[in-house]
Each structure stands twice: as structure tokens, then as C-alpha cells.
């Protein structure tokens, strides 16, 4: 059961009075998101059409500017909410690995576009916890996103470890390291202040208003925690550390690589350390002469992708954009691949498959499943009902769904969605939260009351805990945050559709 707590962030106890100006700001921030989401979505569609070099550069600049503006609106909304009233926490069991991995994967396209590596790890003795998952994700996303923004070379690392040994309510440390310029000692308090920057030129150079870290500090205080910045101990760059106490809901994870040794080869220290920690968290050991080696593409032979001396026991590490190299590495004798940032479950599966192949060369190993970040989409014939009243939002979602092979029907109101589900069968329903008349949650409740169990995914501009709770309480299964993009949509389709049981078009 979820447990709610309230943390009062208003000085002098003025929790009951809502500043009209801040209430207006919150309302206008919501209204501004809709056209901004439309702008970003349409630019993304434009970038997938034939463009010459100059047009592509213009479109990319427009997309970056629109995303910056949306980020600023989101920061203003978050800050207004934190300043205006008591903050409610929705405490649920949190899968720390899933949370940290999700943040890293969400930021990986931005990091890879800059030539950066982004990695994550959760220490072996770290338990799952009771927390507000949305607020915790917001803290990590702001810290790691800030690191990606200010880092020009190298990478960003997100890690979690126990800061003390209390078995019932340990303090956990969420650490973000980067290889950026670092933060001068005299600026380390100022950057957590409203509109604060380490340097007066930062707001211009990095398109920031200085609200993101102020929001992080307020959220950290609300969780009885602290956030600070210091020099990265292993080299140039900054280390941001958020520490807070949490209730434990599960014991530390299993050790499926117990007794196994693995070699790791990468020229990038973050890739190396994260892989080593994920192997250790799985019970394995790292040794140079191990029977199975994880080899970063950056350190693999480049000329013709020649076989490595560890042929048959080597696993190549690739970015999603390097997916075209998978077949060539396999033909060169590599046993399989892993996509960066690494997933611990995939690492374990690939290593155990390679170990099995080494132990019995005569037995053909079972094929490893394709990583969904590089696997081709297979959703042809999937029937989708899209309930969205905004024409631009509907065009974007419909276009992306049809590119995945889906058969799409549309509804402009919640009442139309309920009527459509009553007369036809769908594999999936995408439901906008805010529609005229019957809104998304009301429509979902009506569908569930009629006994229909079709998966319903909310489309919302907000990622707050109360929005997620409203979706689930209405009977929805999941939610996607606007603006929609192809990767998140494809992942949602993979989670909630059954390729062998599509609804029949009729």
C-alpha cells in the first residue's frame, strides 16, 4: 500500500495561504506546455523527413531551443509548487535499479549526441526502499541532466550506495559524477539558490535559469536529506551527492554470477567502473584472464572488425547508434552484444550464455533476446485507440503509432473513447488526461466499470506523483509524459501489447 506524507516547505508555516501570483504561474505553466509539446513533436517529425544540411541544422537548433523553453517552464512550475504549499509524498516500494537505469537511459541520447558516455550502478548491499518514486526520479534527473549539460568531454556517472549501516532505515547516497569543469568552492552554495550560477555567464552559455538545482535542494530538504557538491575524487569534474534516510522494503538483490569471473576492457573509466560494479552486485568477480570478456567498441579492433583473441567468449559494448555493427561483430566471432548504458539483467544473461557456450562448445547456445533499444519494432496490425482532443498532439501520436505499424482510430473526447471501446476491441488505448467534458480518468473509470480490461495508457504533460496516482486510481495501467517521442512510445508498445494476440480489424 502506498503511504502519503506531507513535508511543509513554506517558511513561517504559511501553508494554508496560496499566493495568487504563484497559482497563476502554475496554471499558465500547464497551459504553455501544450503548444510547446506540439512544437517539439512536430520538429521531431520534420527531422525524419528528407532535409538538406542547412535545413537539418535549423531544425535541430529549433528543437533544442523549444526543449530548453519547455525545461524552463517545468522548472518554474516545480518551483511554484514547492513554494506555494505543503508538498505531499506518495510513498511506494521503489526498484532502485530500475529507477537509476531509467534516468540514465532517458539521458543517454542527449549524452551520446555530445560524445559523452553515461553509466549507472547500484551497490550490491543497497536494498530497495519506500519512497516517492516520482520525486526521487526528479532529483536524479535534475542532477544528472545538469551534469550532461555542463560536461563537454568524458562522461557522467550515476551511482547509489549505502551511507550508513542502519538495517531498517539506512541513509542512501545518490551520487552523480561528471568530467566537466567542476564548481569553484566559493560557488558551491550559490548554485543551489534561486537563479544562482557558478559563473555569471553560465545562464547565457548553458541556457539555464538556475532553478533546477534550487528545486533539488528543496526536495532534498523535504525528504530529510541534504545535497552538496564537491570535487570529483578520481579526477577533474564535479560530484553531486544527495543523501537521505529511507525505510527498507526488500533485501539486497540476488547473486546470479556467484563463482563467475569476467574481464572488462574499455578506455573510458566510467564504463569500466560501472561494469565492474554491476558484475560485483551480481556476485561475480573481475579478472584480466577471465573466460568471458566485455569489450567496449571504443577499444575493439577497428580495421575490418577482426576477431578478438577471446573469440567466442567476447561480448561487445555498443551505443544504440552503433546497432549496425552487431551483425559484423557476430560474424567476426563475438558471442553477443550489450547496449550502453548497460543493464545489469542483460549483462548477467549475456555472461551466463557465454559461459555456457565455453563449457560446452558442442551445444548451441540459446539465442539471446534483442535489446529493445536496438531491436526492430514489430507492432504491425496492433489496434490502438487514441483519445486526444488537441489536433497537434493527435497528429503527432497518430503519426508515430502508424510508423510502428499500428492501426489507429481516434476519439476527441472521453465520451467518444468510451463509446469506441464499447463497440470494438483494441490492443491498447492511449488516453489524454485533460479533455473537454469527460476527461481521461473519468473515461477510464467508465471503461473499467463496463468490465473491459484493455490496457489504458495516460498521455499527460505532468510526471508528478499525484498525476501517476490519478491514473492508477482511475484504472489506467501506465502513463507517458508529453511530448511523445518514438523511443518511449515503442517501449510502451513493447510493454503492453501481445504480438500473438492482436485485436482483429473488423
From TrEMBL:
SMART domains: HATPase_c, HisKA, REC. The keyword Phosphoprotein applies. Keywords: Phosphoprotein. Residues 27-248 form the Histidine kinase domain. It comes from the Bacteria. InterPro entries: HATPase_dom, His_kinase_dom, HisK_dim/P_dom, Sig_transdc_resp-reg_receiver. Residues 383-497 form the Response regulatory domain. The keyword Phosphoprotein applies. It catalyses: ATP + protein L-histidine = ADP + protein N-phospho-L-histidine. The modification 4-aspartylphosphate is found at residue 432. PANTHER family: HISTIDINE KINASE, HYBRID SIGNAL TRANSDUCTION HISTIDINE KINASE J. This is histidine kinase.
